[in-house]
Amino acid sequence: MDNKYKYIYEKTVDYCYKGTDVLINKLNITNDEDFFNAERELVSLRIYELNEKPLKGNFDFKYLKDIHKYLFQDIYRWAGDIRNCNIAKQDLFCLTEHIETFGNDIFNKLKKEKYFLDYDNETTLDKLVGLFADINALHPFREGNGRSQRVFIESLAKINGIYLDLTVVSKMDMIVASHESINGNYKRLKEMFRKNSRIVNEEERLEYINTYCSKDLKTIINS
Question: Is the pTM of this model over 0.90?
Answer without folding.
Answer: yes
